[in-house]
Amino acid sequence: MSIKSFFLPDLGEGLPDAEIVSWFVKVGDVVKLDEPLVSMETAKAVVDVPSPFSGRVTKLYGKSGDVMDTGAPICDIEIDANLPQRAEAQDTGHHHAPKPSKPAPAAAAPAAAAAPAATQTVEIREDAGTVVGAMTASNEVKQEQALSVGGVKAVPAVRAMAKKLNVDLGRVRGSGPDGAISMADVKAAAANPASAFVPATPIVSAPVPTAAPTVAVSSAPGPATGFDRAPVSSAGKPVRTTPPTVTAKGQPEPLRGVRRNMARIMAEAHAQVVPTTLCDDADINAWIAGQDITVRLIRAIVLACKAEPALNAWFDMANQTRTLHNRVDVGIAVDTDEGLFVPALRNADMLDARAIRESVNRLRTQVADRSIAPSELSGYTISLSNFGMFAGRYATPVIVPPCVAIVAAGRGRHQVVPVMGGIETHKIIPISLTFDHRAATGGEAARFLKVLLDDLARAQ
């Protein structure tokens, strides 16, 4: 019998690592080909990784909560020849090999060294994202299946959320098909445990003590911890941190999932981009009632991109290339408790106002319940940050390569403006345009901003 190591595959779009949510097996268990082996969380999604072999598990290299590098071994399996095995030449979509060592730099062949970078840009656009089952190399987005583990039926993303909210899935009443537990069930259980939990089955021989819950509730406030946190935030959403009875302040907290990836991307962007910001105010005094600010912003961006395509572009410094796009895919910055997501609103230049609003709502809903496909979180050609819905006037938002521009809208205000014959009070929206000065000139950016402001000034 031979023992093979399973190396963590790339779970989508070249992410460098993933966090173990839970193992479906333990050492000594027999696992069959393509059965769920481990649930992993990346910055993009939570996915069940299937076993590439059939046999007995001899070693697990990590435990729940550990961050594993892509290409690192995660388990060893003793191959059982009597069970189904995949042929060596059969494509599974997995990359069952350790992470390759970085080759020594070749000073004599700069053109050859630049070739992989150009290839990678194309692969990002065509990436199939993270799917459940054997990860096939296609663009088809597959739906997560609710697996029954320990008598609890739920998809991986729901299990991950339950773990983070400290919700026992075994006591949650599922509202989905065949009793499957949904994301809404978990959040309801975290916000109002009494109404969402299924009463535990009484055991005559060993009654459940009542002292523990009483102590937990009474020990939350008080001078001993100085920590009193409600189970829901001011927005009515479950607080995604430690329970109120646990003091977490003053202790280092490792970055996980989305926040870890956000820190990495922002650091790389800061090191690569040469940002310059132009600021101005959009006078929207002429707007008729019922205007959708987000829709109007996206429409104005589309028109500005058509007038100055230099800002609706990608820039590749390594290859000294610029790609101007005919389509306009707007990356919409979405703030969550888990970190920043930027889903792509595809073909914004072909959508009317109603379609834009429906698409934005869909993307925000999918981000909130972590059901968004990884392929929807990349490939946008320009970005929009509507931070003004919270606070702030002007900003210098970060451009994430290969994009070269991001539009930011601040908090609207009323302002006295001079008009012919006197002064008036107008509604103003502050606009900030940050662009990569390596790829666009100041004149191109200024003309882009003027078209955007002119369209926002229109009545409808």
Task: Give the helices and strands, then pairings.
Blueprint: E1 3-7, E2 17-23, E3 30-31, E4 36-41, E5 46-50, E6 55-60, E7 67-69, E8 73-79, H1 110-126, E9 147-149, E10 152-154, H2 156-164, H3 183-191, H4 193-196, H5 211-218, H6 257-272, E11 275-283, H7 293-307, E12 313-316, E13 321-324, E14 330-332, E15 334-336, E16 339-341, E17 344-345, H8 353-368, E18 382-385, E19 405-409, E20 413-419, E21 422-436, H9 442-456
Parallel strand pairs: 14-18, 18-19
Antiparallel strand pairs: 1-8, 2-4, 2-7, 3-6, 4-5, 6-8, 9-10, 11-21, 12-13, 14-17, 15-16, 19-21, 20-21
Contiguous uncertain segments of 5+ residues: 89-96, 102-144, 201-206, 208-230, 238-245
Bin the strand percentage.
15-25%
Mean pLDDT: 77
Q: Pairing-aware structural class of the strands and helices?
A: alpha+beta
CATH architecture label of the largest domain: 2-Layer Sandwich
CATH topology of the largest domain: Chloramphenicol Acetyltransferase
Number of strands: 21
The string of secondary-structure elements, in order, is: EEEEEEEEHEEHHHHHEHEEEEEEHEEEEH
Return the domain count: 3
> Would you state the CATH class of the largest domain?
Alpha Beta
**Apparent shape:** elongated
Helix amount: 10-25%
* Whole-angstrom Rg: 26 Å
Q: What is the terminal separation in angstroms?
A: 73 Å
Count of DSSP helices? Answer: 9
The major pleated sheet works out as: 7 strands, mixed
What is the assigned CATH homologous superfamily of the largest domain?
Chloramphenicol acetyltransferase-like domain
